[in-house]
Specification:
The chain has helices at about 10-25, 40-55, 80-85, 110-120, 160-165, 185-190, 205-210, and strands at about 1-5, 30-35, 60-65, 65-70, 100, 130, 155, 180, 190-195, 230-235. By secondary structure, the chain is α/β, with parallel strands linked by helices. It has one domain: Rossmann fold (3-Layer(aba) Sandwich), CATH 3.40.50.1360. The strands form two sheets. The protein has a seven-stranded parallel β-sheet with strand order 1-10-9-6-2-3-5, covered by helices on one side. A three-stranded antiparallel β-sheet has the order 4-8-7, with helices on one face. The two termini are about 25 Å apart. The structure holds fructose -6-phosphate. The site of fructose -6-phosphate (F6R) has 14 residues, from loops. Keywords: Carbohydrate metabolism, Hydrolase. One of its GO terms (molecular function) is glucosamine-6-phosphate deaminase activity. It catalyses: alpha-D-glucosamine 6-phosphate + H2O = beta-D-fructose 6-phosphate + NH4(+).
Length: about 240
């Protein structure tokens, strides 16, 4: 596990963007695993900026997002589909047909989970997976207790996750109770993983992660078993702010 310590959110976002841009340039057909939430917003801004200024192209890139809420229509501004369109896809030259998120709207949920696994497999597997981390150590929406051998599945969101995400909704009641998420094994199958963490809300999660203990009670700890993980973490998340 490689740890890159950075000063703040801005530097975290820049470093993450540099890493992704270098990979896209090296392999124009990159399969990129993406996350939503506040953490990668700055990364996406930097990718858009670089696309506009330097012309980095995503025409052959395939993207696979980690997760989606169950029960929110795609058009809802809180769906992760809408998030990705608004924060990245509409502003770079990635082809809409090459952008993928699991669907939270399918009636046959287990068929959708299997189809998403198959889609990733057919794309050739994820080359680089971007992750944030939940305060409880979740990656994707794999909440504490999720088996390390899990594939894409439906999960009940933890109360703490719903509370953390309530900031985007009008009320806590509006936050969906379930999500569809890549499993831990799906994430671990990525060739390279980049986890981003910024801010004091992540201090406990980062300290647990860096303690090195590997347990399903703390999902992100699985990353210690992966051969190519980079953590880009700022001083606030490391509790190093003076
Ligand atoms: C989002 C995701 C989640 C978030 C995590 C942190 O697709 O999979 O694991 O990365 O909940 O969220 P933020 O970045 O909003 O603190």
């Amino acid at each position: 596990m490689k740890i890159i310590k950075v000063k703040d959110y801005q530097e975290m976002s820049q470093k993450a963007a540099e890493l992704i841009i270098a990979q896209v340039k090296k392999n124009p057909k990159l399969v990129l695993g993406l996350a939503t939430g506040s953490t990668p917003e700055g990364l996406y801004k930097n990718l858009i900026e670089d696309h506009r200024s330097n012309g980095t192209t995503y025409k052959q890139v395939t993207t696979c997002n980690l997760d989606e809420y169950i029960g929110l229509p795609k058009e809802d501004h809180n769906s992760y589909y809408a998030f990705m369109k608004g924060h990245l896809f509409d502003h770079i030259d990635v082809l809409a047909e090459n952008t993928n998120l699991p669907s939270g709207e399918k009636e046959d949920r287990s068929a959708e989970c299997a189809a998403y696994e198959a889609l990733i497999h057919e794309a050739g597997g994820i080359d680089v997976q971007v992750l944030g981390i939940g305060g409880n150590g979740h990656i994707g929406f794999n909440e504490p207790g999720t088996p390390f051998d899990s594939l894409t599945h439906i999960i009940e969101l933890d109360a703490s996750t719903r509370e953390a995400n309530a900031r985007f909704f009008n009320s806590l009641e509006e936050v969906p109770t379930q999500a569809i998420t890549m499993g831990i094994q799906t994430i671990m199958s990525a060739k390279e993983i980049v986890l981003l963490a910024s801010g004091t809300a992540k201090v406990e999660a980062i300290s647990k992660l860096l303690s090195g203990e590997i347990t399903e009670a703390f999902p992100a700890s699985c990353l210690h078993q992966h051969p190519n993980v980079t953590i880009i973490v700022d001083e606030a998340a490391l509790n190093e702010n003076k």
